[in-house]
Write the structure tokens for this entry.
Amino acid sequence: MRARQLVLSALLGALSACRQDTAPPGADVGGAGGVSGVAGAAVPSAALPAAAGAERAVAHQTTPGDVALGNLSDHITSLERRLEERGGDLPLRAELVDYLLSRSQFLSTFSDLARAEELAETAPREFPGNAKALLLRARFRGDVHRFSEAESDLSSAEALGTPARDTELQRASLHVAQGRELEAALAVTERRAAALPTLERLSVQALAEAALGRFDAADEHYRAALASYRDVSPFPLAFVEFQRGVMWAELAHQPERALPYYQEAVRLLPQYVVGNVHLAELELGFGQRAQAEQRLRRIARQTEDPEPWARLGELLLAAQPEDAEGREFIARARRRYEQLLSQQRSAFLDHGAEFFLGPGADAARAIELSRDNLLLRQTGRAYQLALQAALAAGDDQLFCQYLSAALTAARANRNLSALIDAQRQRCDAHTLRRP
């Protein structure tokens, strides 16, 4: 499973789409539960943790998810019309890119990525010598995992006079996403959050802490981020709860702790595609097959994202290996992944590798994609994916090569550490000696 990590400042830039809308007293702002996590071995359904009574970090009501998404889409339409009338308006262009990235984050509308790319990539050429055009392109490039290019744009913007203080938080976020200079990134986020403890700054601090394996501290800062929030838009709240769940499920090796946070994310935003996919995976791990299938079918009908198609196909074929519908879902997902990899390769390397490692059943392709993903970022999750691909291919030499490089990252990622411990006999004692 995966969780695309949006640059949080871009997400928060879309808040104004819902600021004029408040949930009326007694309004139903709920929805289907949602989770992200690593599905473990199936256990009896009675073992599914009860999360309905989990304390909510944000007590006030928010705009219902369908209303908020409708407002967001309306605002995108309005911005497109205004931009067509005033093509030379850089702030208008930047606002539109933020909204497009936000909608893509929650609805997996990859067509929005294509439009955002068009607007962001051409900005420095159309506005030469304008640092804000470079900052806009950096924001987009970071979102699609073109980290080095994004950082180069930040440096170019600084050379044009942008104060380093205005770029340091975004630079720190890029370093966290790459798994490098984490202590320095944390120091930046701590200082900025202490000066002004907003949802954005506290969340980026929590991301840095989670990357370093400081899960309890990160969870406290996620909670503080949510508690600092006073608006009615569900988007930032759903995003933070989702990231909170990702931490417990995919870094801390405790998927049961992820459950209430993902349920809250999808309660706030029932259409949250990746949240529903990850919940379905966790439900399968807890033996809730019928519930997982129902969730995947619902989300598969509404999205451009191949991941729910692939997961649904995998689920159907697990029950009936000759199921024609399951085979068609996987074939459809394969076609879409190849399309996405040809359009935004860096953004879909990890997603594509997971597909070919699983329902796509092509270990060689998974090795290729996971290798390229590891070149982009040396995170625990990237190492885990590369190791799994080597295992699937039966390539012990490659596995041990990756394993030796992954030992440091495993200290901050319990999921990676568990994989290493389970497979350590494949490599000699010298290779496996931990730092």
About this structure: Residues 65-85 form the longest helix (21 residues). The chain has 22 helices and no strands. The CA atoms of residues 128 and 275 lie 39 Å apart.
